[in-house]
């Protein structure tokens, strides 16, 4: 099992020590209304964004008994990267291999701590909120769309795309479709070519685009 975070520019951070547990919180939102002579009534409004949280640490030195890979990231550099991502408005892709967690998220909170007798190690808690893509359209854009005329701000999309070194479906969707969250559309159109793992695309594969 591997825990990774990837930003839209392809910068990848592996968490070197697997957490002992991952907590996923799901909530439903309600609006409470008061009915005259009838008391309060909860009206379901939909599902809130999902929260994913776990704790681990960045070790200063490699130990094969718990480290998943080498070379290890510098603990302080890794924490600074988490700080940078938390301040960013761009979503990250969180992957936990061996599970269904392969989603776009925003890093909403993280805490770090140091322990006596373990110089250089940095312990952390992180919380992610699943990303929901949205687009705000101006009135002019809405009128243009309803009138059947092509919107000038829409980039024409090629019928196919040839995979290059370092590509991922998320990056391809972000670059060509305007949103990385549309990677699954590309995958569904090319599932036979790609196979069961959407992360294993090959250089020079020709993908059919939505």
UniProtKB/TrEMBL annotation:
Alphabetical list of Pfam families matching this protein: LysM (PF01476)
Organism superkingdom: Bacteria
InterPro entries from the UniProt entry: Bact_Kbp, LysM, LysM_dom_sf
CDD domains assigned: LysM
Record-annotated LysM domain positions: 159-209
Name this protein carries in UniProt: Terminase
The species this protein was found in: Paenibacillus pectinilyticus
């Amino acid at each position: 099992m591997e825990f990774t975070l990837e930003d839209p520019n392809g910068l990848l951070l592996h968490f070197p020590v697997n957490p002992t547990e991952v907590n996923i919180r799901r909530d439903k939102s309600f609006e409470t209304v008061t009915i005259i002579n009838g008391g309060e009534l909860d009206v379901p409004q939909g599902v809130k964004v999902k929260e994913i949280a776990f704790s681990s640490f960045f070790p200063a030195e490699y130990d094969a008994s718990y480290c998943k890979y080498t070379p290890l990231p510098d603990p302080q550099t890794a924490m600074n990267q988490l700080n940078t991502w938390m301040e960013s408005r761009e979503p990250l892709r969180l992957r936990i291999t061996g599970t269904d967690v392969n989603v776009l998220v925003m890093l909403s909170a993280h805490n770090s701590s140091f322990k006596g007798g373990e110089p250089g190690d940095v312990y952390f808690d992180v919380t992610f909120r699943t990303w929901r893509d949205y687009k705000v359209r101006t009135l002019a854009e809405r009128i243009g769309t309803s009138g059947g005329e092509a919107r000038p701000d829409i980039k024409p999309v090629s019928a196919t795309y040839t995979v290059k070194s370092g590509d991922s479906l998320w990056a391809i969707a972000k670059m060509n479709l305007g949103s990385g969250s549309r990677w699954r559309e590309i995958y569904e159109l090319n599932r036979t070519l790609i196979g069961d793992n959407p992360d294993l695309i090959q250089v020079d594969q020709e993908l059919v685009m939505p």
